């Protein structure tokens, strides 16, 4: 079979075998509905209770502060709309950043159409917000600050502790989208003064279609999905039992292996960045040099376009991603890259390679061998590169 | 996502490069939109004897440029003017809906090079009267 | 091991082995994110496309009218809120019934708090609505009729075709919660004039945590979960890939086996009902004698209470459910049983036994042998029964 090198761990991860093994009995044998009072229901309920504890433990929360959802996007939508509508009497102002995931941004835009006001904080060239900007954005009507822990494209980590401190002082509810950070950074919701936090299992070697929202005890929130009394009446719907079991296991594994995981991906990531910087000209690293996710590398290659880069790599079995507009079918390149102040051309040539637990040193060597050739081939075709070679730049 | 034909023209693009002292050069698109196509024509006796291109753009932009050069090579100027983006798409066995504009760009690039040729030689070419190579044809159609 | 007889198929079903087999590769090997353009992403995308077609085919819809959700409750919430808010300019009136699932009822109640008006149609003693009631409830402001295909507790099937006809004539959007009906009744959304329809995989031997909303082409609806461009921009969130694959397979199996399934469960169900009616006194069948789900039996045993009945059966390995208030932890017995006009006492003594593909004749024989004894034992303890025996009733 053709060589396949997966370097898109921030998009999604393969599930670990231990996670699958944990889930398997819950499909066909222990399949009960956790709301049922008979033995089938009770064994299902117990499994969910255990998962909830595993998840709670991994973020320093209490089990009854964990609410399972259908994924990270649902958690974001729920947190933001739920807090907005539950606190409508207190105010209508929300603070977020320009580089949030669409699950946050589009939810905020939806609320803007419905009587809320949203401040989108700028970020610096490395993708970090300015704490003073945040301070001055807070006003009497501010009911929610929602800021991501780490960015999915450029990996930049925000000063969450400082933000949490400010939110606490100003008595504003603080929601954190930690979908990318979870499993890559030690998180303790109490140390960081986080009131709500979104998580997603498929980014940490768990199953797709299951996420969670941490809701600090006492925080008033409306439901997004009404119906049955599941999740202590806050999130209706028959529980995704195997999904929850898998998420619990994945969270427990992520917690146990955190140090080793960080070490493993960081070493490979640094080797990748160093190699590319040495071998390829006209390239820069997007995102923060230090405050970044351990497995994230995001390059901007001048004179070429991201989709053609991705396709060429794919032909070689290398899977990455790009913030190019051509990839997404939208007119503009990634809002994250634009917020960094990159020009359209540069943003178009971005390539994100994200490293995970199954990445090997050979994988990186292979990329370091092939990627420079691909970049070169595409540049030879590019009318923009022509000018550089011709000394016009 | 892409047909085998598109991938073939993307991975093995025909006629990449420049032509020195080209008889017609056309450049369309802009880097802001993420695509620039540049087309060079060598024309002898009203026949396109050589054509080269350079493209900054996605896989489909490169593939459409490549096949467009093949489709006009050896053709008369008049025949080349008949090239439509639809013909380009068909020749590639189709393109995803949001990539159709890349084929429009290829048609524009050819026309723009022909216009350059016509201007240099003070010719009036039927079909180019209303052609404006600076018009923005970069519409990424949204899927619904 | 203790004998275990599962008769709670309406609560949830075990997954079929064929469904699990279909899903398995998508956890650890074919794990790509369907939005990614590389080969991992494309193989994921293809799998989703196939499932969408399987599901569409099973209800006579087109593939691009199927939108995957995190379950039946999300589908109900989305349909009702999404239609309500998208048609707010046309009117604010919604028509439903008193016996809907909580995912519909609580969503309607939520909308009532937000400027909408809801008519809850009464049902007759068998749980069916009156078509004339529906006709006279429709007014100029009516934007949505949402009526369940078949009821989860009593199994009663509504006259969906007539309702669809009226909705079409009056140009009112028609949503159907078909979570219980799907896989038990042949459904064609076009023949029935259904505009939106909620489905859930775990009721048809598919995985938990995955559902779908059918949305007729051209129907204007707001999103419930905003974010990424998944599900043609209508439902954000990384797709539950194995879940979707499993749902597709389950739908295809349900469609193929529909006749055999109906035949199998109906024979056993009829045997169960007949046996209980013969062996136990003071018992009645809740729901419609004919217009009912083939696998549904719902009894009201006088003088006893549902939870104690369930617990006793559970001790014998028999898993059923009840509309008793004691089961749900709420004060009132099932709103469905109350809507039939049952007295509190009678409603309290309800027992739902639902039959599925894995139910055997021995299972039914076992229940017919044990259930009368259990009922009798509990009645011996009941002060209400005492009076009957004493001839006071
Ligand atoms: C009629 C009906 N509607 C909706 C639902 C909710 O579906 P889910 O549990 O998949 O959220 C159920 C089952 O729980 C149901 O029986
Ligand atoms: C930062 C961030 N937030 C939210 C999400 C959404 O999570 P999910 O795909 O599980 O809905 C993602 C990933 O897609 C993400 O990277
Ligand atoms: S160049 Fe952008 S989509 Fe083709
Ligand atoms: S009798 Fe105990 S809760 Fe109803």
From TrEMBL, chains A, C:
Binding site for pyridoxal 5'-phosphate: 72-73, 152, 180, 200-202, 238
Cofactor section: pyridoxal 5'-phosphate
One Pfam family, short name: Aminotran_5
PROSITE patterns the record matches: AA_TRANSFER_CLASS_5
EC class: transferase
Function: Master enzyme that delivers sulfur to a number of partners involved in Fe-S cluster assembly, tRNA modification or cofactor biosynthesis. Catalyzes the removal of elemental sulfur atoms from cysteine to produce alanine. Functions as a sulfur delivery protein for Fe-S cluster synthesis onto IscU, an Fe-S scaffold assembly protein, as well as other S acceptor proteins.
Subunit comment: Homodimer. Forms a heterotetramer with IscU, interacts with other sulfur acceptors.
Enzyme Commission code: 2.8.1.7
UniProt-recorded name of the protein: Cysteine desulfurase IscS
GO biological process, one term: [2Fe-2S] cluster assembly
Catalytic activity: (sulfur carrier)-H + L-cysteine = (sulfur carrier)-SH + L-alanine
Protein keywords: 2Fe-2S, Cytoplasm, Iron, Iron-sulfur, Metal-binding, Pyridoxal phosphate, Transferase
Catalytic residues in the record: 326
Every Aminotransferase class V domain range: 5-367
Gene Ontology, cellular component aspect: L-cysteine desulfurase complex
Gene: iscS
Record-listed N6-(pyridoxal phosphate)lysine modification sites: 203
Protein residues bound to [2Fe-2S] cluster: 326
Pathway the protein takes part in: Cofactor biosynthesis; iron-sulfur cluster biosynthesis
Range of residues in the leader sequence: none
Entry's transmembrane regions: none
Family from the record: Belongs to the class-V pyridoxal-phosphate-dependent aminotransferase family. NifS/IscS subfamily.
Protein's cellular compartments: Cytoplasm
Taxonomy, superkingdom: Bacteria
GO MF: 2 iron, 2 sulfur cluster binding; cysteine desulfurase activity; metal ion binding; pyridoxal phosphate binding
TrEMBL record, chain B:
GO molecular function, one term: iron ion binding
GO annotation terms (biological process): iron-sulfur cluster assembly
Protein name: Nitrogen fixation protein NifU
Pfam families xrefs: NifU_N
Organism, as annotated: Geosporobacter subterraneus DSM 17957
PANTHER family per the UniProt record, alphabetical: IRON-SULFUR CLUSTER ASSEMBLY ENZYME NIFU HOMOLOG (PTHR10093)
Annotated ranges, domain NIF system FeS cluster assembly NifU N-terminal: 1-122
